[in-house]
Amino acid sequence: MKSPITGKEMTLRASTSRLVFRKEEFEYFHLGYYCEDSDELFTTTELDEMNLNQVYNQYRAKHNILFADEIISIRKKYGLSANRMSQILGFGPNSYRNYEKGEVPSMANANLIQTISEDSNIFRNLVLRSSDLEDGEKTKVLAKVDAAIEIEQACSDENKYVSMLFENMLPNVFSGYRKPNIQKFSEMVVYFSEKLQPTVTTMNKLLFYADFLNYKKSAYSISGARYMAHNYGPVPVRFNGLFDYITNKRMVDTQIEAFGEYVGEKFVLPPTKSFNQDLFNEIELESLQTIASTFSKCNASQIKDISHQEKAWIENEKGKRKINYNYGFDLIHV
């Protein structure tokens, strides 16, 4: 971005700041473009939104308020419109739609949304008791809710297994303020397998850089995965179990290949599988593309050495600690 005063290119800076939201103060990384000649900091609409999102994210995590993507997924599970959800829950006409766009719900509304996310039968009872629905419409909505409950019950064991793999399903700063999403994580593996056919070591670094770059750009990770500082660089927590799950689902395959004097595995796509970009927004797709392009010529040893230069690994490697996503603002290679 060019300075509106001098016309010269400015540098993007992140500095610690504090902001009050709903009578609570939160620390965040304020992003802005710095003009050296005028000693002023300038922002764009996108940066203003990201700065605010960092504060909203902390407030949501502190008070266990669902994030926008979770609120969207509840509605989609039942196949209902945002207006219909507002009607059933007793919200204002546009409230649910605004929550999907990122508005933070009041605590009362947030608690109700949290309740129906945990128990579909409670939502079913709300539909039954709704005086705003005509009998014919109520019957249609109940059919959709009952179908969703059946699917939940059928997938119960698998969902428990996925929850175990991710260790912690609550969004916080160690998940990039996303609820861990096995579908998106799997498709990230599919994407990099399709583009680069990486080894396990390389795949771990590609996933780390993609998630943390996306956080750097938007204040959200892509997959919600947690990462730790491993001897060979940052890796998703329980990555072996996650990769086993994805290969058992035949979303990707592995092949044995010789790498000089060593033999190892690389990820490849089955002939019938292709990347599903519909799960990702524009920023997330750009993050994936950037990482694939940036590291396309790196082998496992090279990308490992590159990741060892990142503050995220340096400051957490000694205790093999989980990596706070705020280290995304310190990335030096993307």
UniProtKB/TrEMBL annotation:
One protein family per Pfam: SocA_Panacea
CDD domains per record: HTH_XRE (cd00093)
Domain Antitoxin SocA-like Panacea: 204-313
InterPro entries the UniProt entry points to: Cro/C1-type_HTH, Lambda_DNA-bd_dom_sf, MqsA, SocA_Panacea
The organism of origin for this protein: Flavobacterium hercynium
Gene3D superfamilies: lambda repressor-like DNA-binding domains
Taxonomic path: Bacteria, Pseudomonadati, Bacteroidota, Flavobacteriia, Flavobacteriales
GO molecular function: DNA binding
UniProt name for this protein: Antitoxin SocA-like Panacea domain-containing protein
